[in-house]
Amino acid sequence: MENMKTEIKTHSNTLVQACKNCKKDFTTEGEDFNFYEKIRVPPPTWCPECRQLRRYAWRNERTLYRRNCDLCGKNTVTIYSSNKPHKVYCNECWWGDGWDASSYGRDFDFSRPFFEQFAELQLDVPRMALLNKNSVNSDYTNHSGDNKNVYLSFSSFFDENVMYSTWVFHSRDCTDCTFIYEKGERLYEIIDSRTCYQCQYGLFLKDCSNCLYCYDCRGCNNCFMSSNLRNKSYVFKNKQYTREEYLKKMKDYELLSFVIREGLNKEWKDLMEQHSIHRYVISERNINSIGNLLYDCKNVIQSFEIYNGEDARYLYSCREIKDSMDLYHVGMNVELCYELQGCTRTSNCQFCHLCYDNMNVMYSDTCQNSQNLFGCVSVKKGEYMIFNKKYSKADYEALKEKIIEHMKKTGEYGEFFPPQNAPVYYNETQGALYEPMSKIEVLTKGWHWEENVPGTFGKETIPSALIPDKIEDVPDSYLSEIFSCTTCSKNYNITHNELLFYRKENLPFPRRCPNCRYKTRFDLRPPRRLWHRACMCDRNDHGHAGQCDNEFETTHSPDRLEKVYCESCYNKEVY
Question: Domains of the chain: which residue ranges?
Answer without folding.
Answer: 8-56, 137-254, 305-419, 464-524, 531-574
